[in-house]
Design brief:
Layout: E1 6-12, H1 16-33, E2 36-42, H2 48-60, E3 70-78, H3 84-103, E4 107-114, H4 117-124, H5 131-148
Parallel strand pairs: 1-2, 1-3, 3-4
Helix pairs in contact: 1-5, 2-3
Length: about 150
């Protein structure tokens, strides 16, 4: 295993085009910083916390071939006609925050919660708001904070 920083990008793929655009922005920011990465796809935003927890657990028990320095959660939830949106947004956000505080991980939170597909696309598009890039930079900053506080690699 290497000591070079590596980030796991976990992508909720329910809206594939939006996920790809978010990943494009995140990967560019990581590449610009010289940080390697790996992508892992899950069905949607609700599954993001579990996948990150699986990665943490594999590092805890020593079965991981890679030790991740940070994590990026990417996905999109667009409001529909039912309350499903509210549950998915609330529970995935809460579970991701719980992972950051329980396991002291550096996390870039990139789950778009939008009213319409147009809003989601404007936030995801690299040429527009580039939220993928923003959350990658947030993850990188939190990795620096951990290093500064001597918390090491998770």
């Amino acid at each position: 295993m290497t000591d070079a920083p590596r980030v796991l990008i976990v992508e909720g793929r329910f809206y594939e085009d939006i996920a790809d655009e978010l990943a494009k922005g995140a990967i560019q920011a990581l590449d610009d910083a010289g940080v390697s990465h790996e992508r892992l796809a899950v069905p949607g935003a609700f599954e993001l916390p579990a996948a990150i927890r699986y990665a943490i657990h594999s590092m805890e028990v020593g079965s991981a071939s890679v030790r991740y320095s940070g994590f990026i959660a990417l996905g999109c939830v667009i409001r529909g006609d039912t309350t499903h949106y509210d549950y998915v947004c609330r529970e995935s956000a809460r579970a991701l925050m719980d992972l950051t505080t329980t396991y002291s991980i550096a996390l870039g939170y990139g789950v778009l919660t939008c009213e319409t597909r147009d809003q989601a696309w404007a936030r995801a598009a690299v040429e527009q708001k580039n939220k993928g890039g923003d959350v990658a930079r947030a993850c990188l900053r939190m990795m620096e904070v951990k290093k500064h506080l001597r918390l090491g690699v998770q």
